[in-house]
Specification:
Strand order of the largest sheet: 1-2
Helix content: 55-70%
Largest sheet: 2 strands, parallel
Number of strands: 2
Order of helices and strands: HHHHHHEHHHHEH
Structural class: mainly alpha
Length: 224
């Protein structure tokens, strides 16, 4: 049975089409050592180590993501192979699921403006109050506060960080995140194994795009 998926990160769509990579057991003691190193030396120390052993994986991880940095080092520590090596080996035996892949783009200035407007709308809808309510229930070390925007607003609530400063950082980081997503999807388009169609929403009327989507989806689902 076919499904339609709208949205999601590039990595989520990659796993949906290619399947999940081989899972590896963790090492709680080694992870505790890494967490202590982060407290003493900062995340940069672990990132530098990962850059030495697995530069491909290190380049894929967002700057403020200790969980994925530790996981990549943990896999190398427990298996003797890097995460990039495991991914490459898994890819050799993997069969892509049949798919249609549409990438909807906008010009960068237009996309940036929409990102900033969206953040302003979220604030007006009570985003800061949501963070305050979460902090009443959970400690600041909870993983949800590592998400983009939540850490900055948490600092406003707990550390008296000026709200305009926090909002500016959120907008800057969100714009940078969108840029990384565009880079990711550029790589997907260049992969001949993927059936990708890119559409510029500023140049293609929505009714034309909708008609094309319906036609191609009907053809696709009739063949699976």
């Amino acid at each position: 049975q076919g499904v339609i998926v709208c949205g999601g990160t590039g990595l989520f769509l990659k796993h949906l089409i290619e399947g999940l990579v081989h899972a590896h057991p963790g090492d709680p003691a080694y992870r505790a050592e890494m967490e202590e190193r982060i407290r003493r030396e900062g995340l940069g120390s672990l990132r530098a180590e990962l850059r030495r052993v697995d530069p491909l994986r290190e380049a894929e991880i967002f700057p403020n993501d200790p969980f994925r940095v530790m996981r990549a080092l943990e896999i190398f520590h427990t298996t003797g192979k890097t995460m990039s090596q495991w991914h490459a080996e898994d890819a050799e035996s993997r069969t892509l699921r049949p798919h249609l892949y549409y990438v909807l783009q906008r010009p960068t200035p237009e996309l940036d403006a929409r990102i900033f407007a969206r953040i302003d709308a979220m604030m007006e809808a009570g985003w800061l109050r949501e963070v305050e309510a979460l902090l009443e229930r959970f400690p600041r070390t909870t993983r949800c506060f590592k998400a983009l925007g939540y850490r900055e607003l948490m600092e406003t609530v707990l550390d008296s960080r000026p709200l305009p400063e926090a909002l500016q950082e959120i907008k800057t980081k969100t714009r940078q995140f969108a840029k990384r997503q565009r880079t990711w999807f550029r790589g997907v388009r260049q992969n001949p194994a993927y059936n990708v169609r890119e559409v510029n929403l500023s140049e293609t009327p929505h009714e034309v795009l909708l008609e094309e989507l319906v036609t191609r989806a009907e053809e696709f689902f009739s063949q699976i």
